[in-house]
Amino acid sequence: MISGLLADGLADADVERLERVWGATDTNFVKLAELAGLDRSSAWRYLNLSGTDFTDCDLRGFDFTGADLSGCTGSNVIVDATTILDGAELDASIFELGAAAARIFEVHPELQREYRRIKGSYWTEQHNWVCDILSRKLAHPEARRTLALALYFDTKDGFVRRTILSWMVYRSGDFNEALGFLVRFLSEPGQDDEAIASAIIFLGSRYRRNEHAASLLFSIAEDPKRSLLIRTAAATAVLGNETTIRNLSRASALARDLESRTLDNMYIRMIAKQISQFHLLVVGEGKPRGGINFQDPIDEPALFRIVSGVWSARKEDEPRRVTTAFDAATLAELVPLVADCLRDLRNRGLRIRIEFDDTIVEAVVRQASPAARRKS
Amino acid sequence: MEQRPLKQGRPANAVADLLDVSSRLSGEPSGDRVMVATDVRVFPAIIHEPAGSLVTRRAILKLELSGLQISPGHRLGDVVKAPRTEEIKDTETASAKVAGSVEAAFAAGSASQPEVSAKVTAEAGGSIEKRRERSSTAIVEHAAVKAKGGNLWEIYDGGADLAAVYIQAESTLCHLERLGGSNRAAVTIEGYVCRRDLDFKPEKRFPPVINKEKVILAILASGLGTGVPGPMVKLSSQEFSDD
Fold first, then answer.
1. For a tag site, which of A109, A217, A332, B69 has the least CB within 10 Å?
2. Closest residue of B to A54, CA-based?
């Protein structure tokens, strides 16, 4: 029994155990528990274990009576009747899915056989099974969908997991459900960043008119603890959200912090879209070319490139929309229109680096004239 | 019969930096009425390796009484539900509708005496709509200390980690009165934390190592009590008796 202050009351053996666990390189829950010499049948009762990752853990014999296991994740987790979950909080945890799956197996034993077979099969078969469940009208659709979600935690294959995830985000239709799934995914330790980034993009595009989604995406993009890949994905999604225009200063800070030309351009496009179709076209230069950003100067070659980009967008990208956006019969006629448009954006407060004056605009007009182009 | 005064016992706080409960009794010379004054401090308990703290979101104070009872109405943290002010506004709108039609038909019975039939229908209707609007106001105070049944007090600050002095001796915890006919009077004041509300918070939270945090929590929690752990761990006890 500890007496007095916690730190002073710790026995040498306890201190050693604490140091051993903290310094361990393996974060497998069971291995850490064994390293700490903790008894499976008593040490975990009534504890707050929310969010624990039980990946690759054999939890047979663990007594989690009254424990808070909400949000616990993990794949390849072994649980049986000796795993005691009496009175435990299981919200949004693998145990909740496990319990739901167990109820399904009681009613439909044939699904238990099917699930066992799929769980142990090669990823291509798992993937086909998931696609069949999600797209075709098979018997017991609700039960099968629950099993498909359970497979998310039981499979190790990223592609299968992404398929399940994309279905969650795209098809469930319930924003809160999709959000809950993403938050759980984000909090799952050891999850690969690419899968998270793609989930964020899915969520962002599915809920691009939803302000709550924008709020969540902002918080992910602004979190310095997240990897650059995840932050950039969240920023991309938030800048594509239609409600972000109400939060310009935050969006601008985000684009600046992440120092990405793509994000710069998304921000600039968001502003340009509010002004006119032509502005949007100019800053996008015809989307495939990347568009203008806050970092690269717009000098003579850049201006020419932008004008050419807009001109070819007329033919290549969206002919009907582009031809109604500006009134210029030749490339040379388009040059002053583009130059004025860029100046207008700068005058409205966008800090784009315009490094051309009237002389340069005239030079670009000459460059764009049919004679000069024939010569080149 | 003259009452023997209650002797003050020393508080025993197992982890004083996490939960420190210290009480004293004072009362009238006759000893019929006793006031319990208690200090309750709940703060994160710091450990150095790994650097972090053991925190709790809830603490429980319990009085075990023998030959005594808490005087009704003298209990700190009694949450009395305030009467709700409710305003009910009735709005009535009435409308009436009358519609009628006459249909006449001539059927040719014979050329000389045509049959005539007529049907008159009339509809009349009226309606009264009654709408009731109700608004109510209730003032709810969110106190961190709440007196509960069974001589218990719960300290809970909306789920936040507790880090303050929650009860001070100046505000009396409760008044006790002797039960007639008892030949012994004793009070034990106990302080508990709920295992499920304990958490280990490392100083460095990056990179996240949730599994390590939970195992560290289990090591620390196992040091707080003996035997098979139940939902609560007793960390503090102080006894007063007239023995």
1. A109
2. B211
Neighboring chain A residues of B49 at a CB cutoff of 8 Å: 15, 18-19, 22
ipTM above 0.85, yes or no: no
pTM summary value: 0.56
Dist. CA A326–CA A339, nearest whole Å: 13
What are the tens digits of pLDDT across the range A240-259? 888 888 777 788 888 888 88
Sign of CA dihedral A59, A63, A64, A65: positive
A86 to chain B, closest Cα gap in Å: 13
> Closest Cα of chain B to A207: distance in Å?
29
CB count in 10 Å sphere of residue A239: 25
Contact A46 B194 (CB under 8 A): yes
Distance (Å, whole) CA A29 – CA A271: 49
**Which residue is listed with tokens 């730190």?**
A7
Cβ of B15 and A2 within 8 Å?
A: yes
> CB–CB of B222 and A24 under 8 A?
no
Query: Distance, in angstroms, between A90 CA and closest chain B CA?
Result: 13
Q: Which long-range contacts (CB under 8 A, 24 or more apart) does A143-148 make?
A: A143/A104, A143/A107, A143/A108, A143/A111, A144/A111, A146/A97, A146/A100, A146/A101, A146/A104, A147/A101, A147/A104, A147/A111, A147/A115
Task: Identify from B10, B54, B196, B235 which residue to disrupt to test chain A contact, counting A C-beta atoms within 10 A and taking the largest count.
Answer: B196
Longest dimension (CA), chain A: 94
The conformation of residue B197, written as its DSSP 8-state character, comes to G
CA distances from A358 to A252, A351, A370 (A): 30, 19, 20
Residue contact B16–A5, C-beta within 8 A = yes
Residue B30's pLDDT is what? 64
Upstream peptide bond of A224 is cis (omega within 30 degrees of 0): no
